[in-house]
Amino acid sequence: MEEGDHSDPPGGGRLHEALEQLVSLQRDGVQPEDALRELIHSAASSVPGSQYAGITLVDDAGKITSVAATHDYAIVLDEIQSQVTEGPCLSAAWENHTILVNDLESDDRWPQYRTAVLERTPVRAIASFQLHTEGRSLAALNFYAEAPNAFASDAVEMGLIYAAHTTVAWNSVRREQQFRTALSSRDVIGQAKGMLMERFNIDAVAAFELLRRLSQDANVKLAQVAERVVAEGNDST
Predict the structure, then answer these.
(1) Which pTM does this prediction carry?
(2) Cα-based distances in Å from 210 to 214, 231, 236
(3) Minimal CA–CA distance to 15: which of 47, 54, 37?
(4) N or C end of the chain: smaller count of CB under 10 Å?
(5) In order of start, what are the domains of the chain with their CATH numbers?
């Protein structure tokens, strides 16, 4: 690079475009999940050597899923990891670092995973980056290629940059999901309170207390009790 040349690193321009698009999508009211998928597709086409990309999620209960993927191979690899409970994406998510597989044919760190992937897909090179998610769930951003040794140092550098920005997008998605859940719960609790007030001629405080007691007695979340009350009330009309 010549003195005074402040051009972006390889792929940097595409990254800026992707981020601008992400911000624009969110500003225009596009669902965060859709904005995240846009970012993943941009990542797959921008990281040198990458053919496919995806996000692996390990939720609070330890369930492993593919929450965003550009190709079926990414989903298949996550299914394999779920079955054998090992793999580079899980190692990246669990151990908080970057995992690079140059050639799965000769990499014996995850023997069960390796055997299944070689049998079911042509993927040979993998680069996985841990995402710093909020809460107790774990996640990794993954890039895949059919050619061995597909990911050089510039690919790892670009992958790390995309992982940082995907973390921001991912946490935005999670907060939006939590907000929707909270809003939905509030609405159904309000409906249930209204039904109880009308049925038993009680005020809002007493109706809420009744729901709370039912929740405690049944050891069930308050929103679930409210859903049952609403469902039974609708069935009886």
Answers:
(1) 0.67
(2) 6, 17, 20
(3) 47
(4) C
(5) 12-178 (3.30.450.40), 180-235 (1.10.10.10)
